Amino acid sequence: MQRVTLLPLDFRYANVIFKLSSDPHVKNALGIKVETIEDTKAFLLFAIEEERQKKSLSRVIVNEENEIIGLTTLKHINYEKKQSHIGSWLGYPY
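The structure assignment produced for this chain is given below.
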């Protein structure tokens, strides 16, 4: 893989994000509780609201074959200091 694209979060990606994040390798590494698609939809709603409030910025990671392969997020954004924390994860197959 040489190139990825970052896309804004969207509920139409919920099923793929759920599938990738519910894999035990990913779920356990992230320490998240993903039991149902509703958990993923709740996360998306939360992340979209956080972005609206300018607290964080999440993007879906898409590979060269246009497959969603994970997520990346800027957290704790400090606009004055131009600083943030970054967290990313890729689905286990990737």
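Interim note for the steering committee: The domain at 5-90 is CATH 3.40.630.30 (Aminopeptidase). Helices lie at 14-21, 24-30, 37-52.
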